[in-house]
Amino acid sequence: MRLRNLVATAAVAAVLAGCTNDALDTATVDLSTVKNKTEYQLSSKMAAKMSELGMQKTSPIALRIFKEEGTLEVWKANTSNRFQLLKSYKICAWSGKLGPKVKEGDRQAPEGFYPLFPQQLNPNSKYYLAINTGYPNTYDRANGRQGTHLMIHGACSSSGCYSMTDEQMIEIFAMARDAFKGGQQSVQLQAFPFRMTAENMARHRNNPNIEFWNMLKVGYDQFEVTKRPPEINVCEKKYVFNQQGSGAFNPGGTCPAMSTPPALQMAMSTFEKGYKLDYDKAMKKYDGMVWYEPSEAERKAIVAKQRAGRELAYAPTGNSIDAGKLMKASDLEKKLAEQKEAEETKVAVEIQKKELEKATKGGTHVPVPAANPVPQPVLQAAVEQPAKTSFWGLFSKSEPAEQAPAPVAQAPEQQAAVQPQVQPAGAAAKQTRSAGAPQKAQPENTAVAAANAEAAVAPTTEAPVAVEEPPKKRPFWKIWGN
């Protein structure tokens, strides 16, 4: 029944697709006057606006999120069961970059289609109020994506969530509560990276998530045409929208034979012709140019600059439009290479830091550098050698002694091989007496004596050996005389 109603309005909706309220309203709730946040009643101003748009207080709603511009929209069904934009809020904080959440801890906020049930409203959240997105949904689980506690909540603080101010959150919570009271079984959350217009799709054509976004765009376009949330199924690990199947839809299995209702098919055909013309025009506009998608830190820097001199009562993260920019493909390639190098350097520094902490045992032990293994030459102690004296010099005090050679550098192994030989005192005298001949005492070489007394470690030459004088010959006539 729901699908037939959707098809019946598709043709008319195609003509009226552009008639929406684009005003960005802001919450004006005075929280100091709220006694019970879960039972908060929407303001008279909001009630008047709903009446003007032909909406009942308890009629169904749908939520749409656009990361790039940082916007959360509340759409509400009117009396003809078509959805119109009721209110648009600036998202205070969302973490990560454009693209889906894939795993726990990646700081990415979810993208896709998520059913919100009454039990997902959390009135006791530590972030004021919260609505659990239901991530991972059927599509996410089929593709092995993981994550928990992904919310739309207050407090303006995000780590994978869509965070609003408390004033905004109390209104969003109240609108969801009233819709459930009116009999709505589930509220559809549509989370997109950006408005999927022809120009935006052309601008992001080089993003690695473009295939995933092209799949989401089918559901986006059908909502734009029909102004009703699409019926969602998953098969072959893909989203399928408003399809009539011949059998059950198996998220990981083969899709059954499917068909699109004729009226919807006709309306979408007209829409797609206009889209193609707009896309070709956008491609000419962005020829040779690519979009640089900023990081969360770059978005925060823009906000800090805008709020310079003002106290940050909360932590807004800004949007990607202000922080991103169009660039030449070559310039973007260079910029991304520089970012990769900087990231690799950061990782290397962290690894070195951890290794140092491990080596020093938390700072209690610092490794001592090892000694230099290369041997250094050692200078041999200088020792004067005793002067060499000629044979005739033994009997003459006038003959000069030869000069001792200058000291030379020796390698350690040579130094170790040389053993000092010191001649005991009086050895020369004993040797003379053992010869059995009278000998005149010879003076000890003064250079050797000084060296032995000072160093007593260097080798020395033997002391001069005393030489006997030959006996004098007597004349034969005195042999018998006195």
Structure characteristics:
482 residues; alpha+beta; five-stranded mixed β-sheet; 13 helices; disordered N terminus
Structure description:
The structure is a single chain. The protein has a five-stranded mixed sheet, with helices on both faces. It has helices at 2-15, 44-52, 138-142, 166-181, 198-203, 210-226, 262-285, 296-306, 320-323, 329-359, 412-417, 427-434, 446-454, and strands at 61-66, 71-77, 83-90, 93-94, 112-116, 121-122, 130-132, 151-153, 162-163, 187-192, 232-235, 238-241, 244-245, 258-259, 289-292, 325-328, 378-379, 409-410. Mean pLDDT is 79; it is low at 1-24, 416-422, 424-444, 446-451 and 455-462. Helices cover 33% and strands 14% of the residues. By secondary structure, the chain is an alpha+beta fold. The relative contact order is 0.10. The protein contains 13 helices and 18 strands.
